[in-house]
Design brief:
heterodimer; A: alpha+beta; DNA polymerase, domain 1; B: Aldehyde Oxidoreductase, domain 3; Aldehyde Oxidoreductase, domain 4; about 30% helix; about 20% strand; binds FE2/S2 (inorganic) cluster
Chain lengths: ~160, ~800
């Protein structure tokens, strides 16, 4: 059964007709061509598909598109500033070589931002536990942990500067 | 002045920007105009005869364009998938090579075997329709373990392979080895299972086939580590499409670890069907399909004996391995348990006599092929476990026992008794580098402190050799390789002095866009941003063997150097003409071409411009253009090596093992970008830890069903399963036979990793009298082992 949904994706309002079985990740990838959000599994285990829905990280393979009706969704494509300046978490991943093949990266970055936003102070252990739902096969996590700690610090700095 | 982005600089990656902003282009991100979708119907049985397939209902389902089965492929004379390495058995007979059809021909041989393909407007429609296909199966008994498959009454997979035996191969001098055992003061024996693994690159495999009627051209987009190899295998052997009519593109690829080397059925199916249906066809695996169709890794069962003299010097090693090849021969499967395994059994030690025999066996499981390390982790694990067992039985400190047997740097080049000749290496230096980093001297105190907390602490060592850049082509050819093992490169200077580098290597995480550009930028003294790397497209890159076996820098990088040499030679001639000097008087330094003893000089950009605006070139002597191509065929393997030390803590009440410290001291020859190399080592180590503690591919022995078919059951190492690592490397023993002195680093962590972890686990459990444990040392296994010993006591 098709249904019409309206949501805000990366700041822009979109209205589309979707099948009721369409997953949010399919909607993003196939209807909106936002292919930065990836699919790495079919059991909601890998985190390659993490996006933000109303500011919180969500595995977009676990949510139907119709459930996101009315929500604000941010994907990896929506993080950098309009002039191309990277979000501090994106910049930290680059600085600390937190990615290799790049496939897990969008989900990692989105999860990491949520983690930083919800934890005023992050430790290595908290990062490792917080990223438990995101699998990376390439990096061995070492540099991802470094990147997330640095990115969180940069985000906190930016938040302070804004206050 | 050193180039800021040259060799040795920690240049941040150029590929990151697109990956970090969601602009990577992986195969499934590509959509071709008019594209439709394929769904593969797979066998639910491990072993069965297909008596009938009824597609009537499915064909009538919404959106369905076509359904094909094995009969359709056979009618079109589509061949099976080829195997790239011919092994000969001890008796000289060639290995058994049964057909490997892209879609089943009358029989299925593993759960997940391809039975039919449905092409429909959408993926959901194709999938829904596939459920309407009725296949009548006559279920046959299945066998999943290699040892069971060799039993006389085992179910037979292929009529062509009696006893399920593909080959019975051997290497080394049996008489010399037996003589060594006859004189031994000590003989230690060990039986090990090297557990089957599923590679699990995070990007599932995908393929898009396309056919252009106007020119009769095919294009295949695929998740491949080596698009040219796929073009050759699929074009020449499976579909009969000449190379100039077949373009293979491997765009951004989300990890490979070996599993994306091989030519898979789905690639041939979508390419062939694209012509039949007249539309581009996309297929993307779901993760459950990846588990059932990506080539698996490892799966060895081995008995080994090590002979030592009274001082602990190794005298001889005897190894007998049964290797599981799965149901069919994957592309390079046959070379893994032979030339990439048995040839590594000397490891870093002076063992003078080695004999290995390997039986390779068909079973009703997914085909097995190279997975990161491929044969070398199996060899390293076996040797290093044996060394630890020997140290314990004889009562020599395990570091001391290793020291007594390490090949000294002064013995290089060193000919092993198992065919390889190591060109360089300083193994003692690695050990000396690693020991202080782990604080070996402080270990007893740490063990006591852990014991006070009720925890068992263990320390484990592994020294390893990683033979990389398998080569040279003539030797590999004589050993049965059906492919060359060179690499190609083309360095194209543009008129404005920027460069496009075409490489036959393929990057799926290895950072070539950065490290290869470093080579070019430094050599010609140009900004790194002026260098563009092109790879992964047979229409653009002249040729290539791709990326696997840590060969990209050692072989692909050397091809780049060779092409740069040619560019420089040509540029010298142009400079000589422009500066009115003899070419022999032109000196080149950091991209400046200077007439010796003068201040007359030109930059490469000035020369490039002139090369393309050759207004006054003496055309009979000097050709316009500055664009050179090279093929590099290595003289030998390279031999990265290192020493890995792991410290674990085990909770005896739960059996949970925690890696608390891991040190890797490695020799990769010259290092181009330390940041990238460290990243490769980190990732490798975690795959090693994964094999040792977490990952295990399990089949039900009766039904042949894959029990660990998803991330719910197959335990992937996650961020909170592993620690941060301490790494060190030295560059004191560069490779002696390639122009960069590089050795490769891609598999090191995986090779040393699992052995170091398991030695640490067994060390921690030593007080219970436990002498060996098979991988993975899962909490349950550890807990059971402790319990069994406690009961016995
Ligand atoms: S694709 Fe969503 S968790 Fe794996
Ligand atoms: S960078 Fe490849 S999976 Fe994480």
């Amino acid at each position: 059964m098709a249904r019409t949904i309206t949501l805000t994706v990366n700041g822009a309002k979109v209205t589309r007709e979707v099948e009721s079985r369409t997953l949010l990740v399919q909607f993003l990838r196939e209807h909106l061509e936002l292919t930065g959000t990836h699919i790495g599994c079919d059991t909601s285990q890998c985190g390659a598909c993490v996006v933000h829905v109303d500011g919180r990280s969500v595995k977009s393979c676990t949510m139907l598109a119709v459930q996101a009706d009315g929500a604000a969704v941010t994907t990896i494509e929506g993080l950098a500033a309009a002039d191309g300046t990277l979000h501090p978490m994106q910049a930290a991943f680059r600085e600390h070589h937190g990615l290799q093949c790049g496939f897990c990266t969008p989900g990692m970055v989105m999860s990491a931002i949520d983690l930083a936003q919800t934890h005023p102070t992050l430790t290595e252990t908290a990062v490792r536990e917080g990223l438990e739902g995101n699998i990376c096969r390439c990096t061995g996590y070492h540099n991802i942990v470094k990147a997330v700690l640095a990115g969180a610090e940069a985000m906190a700095g930016r938040a302070e500067a804004a206050e | 002045m050193a180039h800021p982005d040259g060799i040795g600089a920690r240049v941040r990656r150029r590929e990151d920007l697109r990956f970090l902003t969601g602009r990577g282009t992986y195969t499934d991100d590509i959509n071709r105009p008019g594209q439709v979708h394929a769904w593969i119907l797979r066998s639910p049985y491990a072993h069965a005869r297909i008596t009938a397939i009824d597609t009537t209902a499915a064909a009538a389902a919404p959106g369905v364009l076509a359904i094909f089965t094995g009969a359709d492929l056979a009618a079109d004379k589509v061949n099976g998938l080829p195997c790239g390495w011919l092994i000969h058995s001890k008796d000289g007979s060639p290995m058994k090579e049964p057909p490997h059809p892209a879609l089943a021909q009358g029989k299925v041989r593993h759960v997940g075997d391809q039975v039919a393909v449905v092409i429909a407007e959408t993926r959901s429609q194709a999938r829904d329709a596939a459920e309407l296909i009725t296949v009548d199966y006559d279920d046959l008994p299945a066998v999943v373990s290699s040892v069971a498959a060799l039993k006389p009454d085992a179910p037979l997979l292929h009529d062509e392979a009696p006893g399920n035996l593909c080959y019975d191969w051997h290497l080394g001098d049996l008489a010399a080895t037996e003589a060594a055992f006859a004189h031994a003061a000590h003989v230690v024996t060990l039986d090990v299972v090297n557990n089957r693994l599923v590679p699990n690159a995070m990007e599932p495999r995908a393929a898009i086939g396309e056919y252009d009627r106007t020119g009769g051209d095919y294009t295949l987009y695929t998740t491949s580590q080596n698009p040219h190899v796929i073009r050759l295998l699929m074009g020449a052997f499976v579909l009969g499409i000449p190379e100039h009519k077949l373009r293979v593109v491997a765009p951004d690829v989300g990890g490979g670890f070996g599993s994306k080397i091989y030519h898979y059925a789905e690639e041939a199916i979508v390419t062939w069907a694209a012509k039949k249906v007249g539309r581009p066809i996309k297929w993307t695996a779901e993760r459950s399909e990846s588990f059932l169709s990506d080539a698996h890794g490892r799966d060895h069962v081995t008995h080994a004996e090590l002979a030592l003299d009274a001082n602990g010097k190794f005298l001889g090693l005897k190894v007998s391995t049964v290797a599981n090849l799965g149901a069919y021969l994957s592309t390079f499967s046959t070379s893994i348990p032979t030339y990439l395994y048995a040839t590594l059994l000397a490891g870093q030690y002076t063992t003078p006599a080695i004999y290995a025999e390997v039986k390779a066996v068909f079973t009703n499981t997914v085909p097995v092929d190279a997975y990161r390390g491929a044969g070398r982790p199996e060899a390293c694990y076996l040797i290093e476990r044996l060394v630890d067992v020997a140290a314990r039985e004889i009562g020599i400190d395990k570091v001391e026992l290793r020291r007594r047997n390490l090949i000294p740097a002064s013995a290089m080049p060193y000919q092993t008794p198992v065919a390889l000749q190591y060109d360089s290496g300083d193994y003692v230096r690695n050990l000396d580098l690693a020991l202080p980093l782990i604080d070996y001297a402080g270990f007893p105190a740490r063990k006591a402190e852990a014991a006070a907390r009720g925890k068992l602490r263990g320390i484990g060592f592994a020294t390893y050799i990683e033979a990389c850049g398998i080569a040279p082509s003539n030797v590999a050819g004589a050993l049965g390789a059906r492919a060359g093992l060179y690499e190609s490169a083309e360095v194209r200077f543009h008129p404005t002095g920027s460069v496009t580098l075409f490489t036959g290597s393929h990057s799926h995480g290895q950072s070539h866009e950065t490290t290869f550009a470093q080579l070019v930028a430094e050599r010609f003294g140009i900004p790194i941003d002026n260098v563009e790397i092109v790879h992964g497209d047979t229409a653009k890159v002249p040729f290539g063997m791709g990326t696997y076996g840590s060969r990209s820098l050692a072989v692909g990088g050397s091809a780049i150097v060779k092409a740069m040499d040619k560019v420089e030679a040509k540029a010298k001639k142009i400079a000589a003409h422009m500066l009115e000097a003899a070419a022999s008087d032109i000196e080149v330094k950091e991209g400046k071409f200077t007439v010796a003893g003068t201040d007359k000089s030109l930059s490469i950009a000035e020369i490039a411009l002139s090369a393309y605006v050759p207004h006054n070139f003496p055309l009979d002597e000097l050709e316009p253009g500055l664009d050179e191509q090279a093929f590099y065929d290595p003289k030998n393997f390279t031999f990265p090596n290192g020493c890995h030390i792991c410290e674990v803590e085990i909770d005896p009440d739960t059996g949970v093992t925690k890696v608390v410290n891991f040190v890797a001291a490695d020799d990769f020859g010259r290092v181009i970008n330390p940041m990238v190399v460290e990243g490769q080592v980190h990732g490798g180590i975690v795959q090693g830890i994964g094999q040792a503690l977490h990952e295990n591919c399990v089949y039900d022995p009766e039904s042949g069903q894959l029990i660990t078919g998803s991330y719910m059951d197959y335990c992937m190492p996650r961020a909170d399963d592993v620690p941060s690592f301490t790494l060190a490397y030295h560059e004191e023993a560069p490779c002696t036979h390639n122009p960069l002195g590089v050795k490769g680093c891609g598999e090191a962590g995986t090779i040393g990793g699992s052995a170091a972890v398991m030695n640490a686990v067994v060390d921690a459990l030593a007080e219970f009298g436990i002498t060996h444990l098979d991988m993975p040392a899962s909490p349950e296994r550890v807990w059971q082992a402790i319990r069994a010993q406690r009961k016995a006591a």
